TrEMBL record:
Name of this protein: Peptidase S1 domain-containing protein
Peptidase S1 domain mapped to chain residues: 75-166
One Pfam entry name: Trypsin
A GO biological-process term: proteolysis
Species whose genome carries this gene: Trichostrongylus colubriformis (Black scour worm)
Entries under PROSITE patterns matching the protein: TRYPSIN_HIS
């Protein structure tokens, strides 16, 4: 299973990226060729790519709130195995070709122990601060090795003027500054 960033959104739910919980029967070159062909014919890729859930029953979780300094995932301390309840919920408009709506919710069979983690706190109707930060692990799209993962926590700082808001989402679109293209933070669903 890849190293993916996630956030605990309830005692029993984890928000992560859809590409972290789904697999394709195609390698990257084949997927890109299929996506290019589908775009030319204006067909939604998610309906034509054979996507299936990665076969895992547990996730290994590391809890941290440290966003300062260089933090290697192996330095996060002990991990805890959390058992998954069924298949993750993937955003119905997830597009594996463009990474649009790259969101999934993992439901756990039991609550995350309080000593391990607690859900994020999101106040309603809160104004964005002037300076914002986003942090996570992922892959380097410029690396010659497509599976080259960041093993260090990556942090991006950006200004709220570079953010568009709607009633349900905050979209950070800062050229050259992103953990993943089209990162989204969900405010409410």
């Amino acid at each position: 299973m890849p190293l993916c960033s996630a956030v605990q959104i309830s005692r029993r739910h984890i928000l992560t990226a859809a590409h972290c919980v789904l697999d394709s029967n195609l390698d990257d070159d084949q997927r890109n060729a299929v996506c290019d062909s589908l775009r030319c014919r204006n067909i939604k890729p998610q309906s034509k790519l054979n996507l299936f859930y990665k076969n895992f029953k547990h996730i290994e979780a590391y809890a941290t709130s440290n966003l300062t300094g260089r933090l290697h995932y192996r330095d996060l301390g002990d991990s805890i195995k959390l058992e998954i309840e069924g298949h993750p919920y993937v955003h119905k408009e997830y597009d594996p070709c463009t990474s649009d709506n790259d969101l999934a919710i993992i439901e756990l069979k039991s609550d995350v122990p309080r000593e391990v983690g607690s859900p994020i706190c999101m106040r309603e109707n809160e104004k964005l601060a002037g300076k914002l930060s986003s942090a996570g692990y992922g892959r380097d799209p410029k690396s010659p090795d497509a599976n080259d993962e960041f093993h260090w926590l990556q942090k991006v700082d950006f200004d709220s003027k570079d953010v568009t808001e709607s009633a349900t989402t905050i979209t950070a679109a800062v050229h050259g500054k992103s953990l993943c293209p089209k990162d989204i933070v969900i405010l409410s669903t």
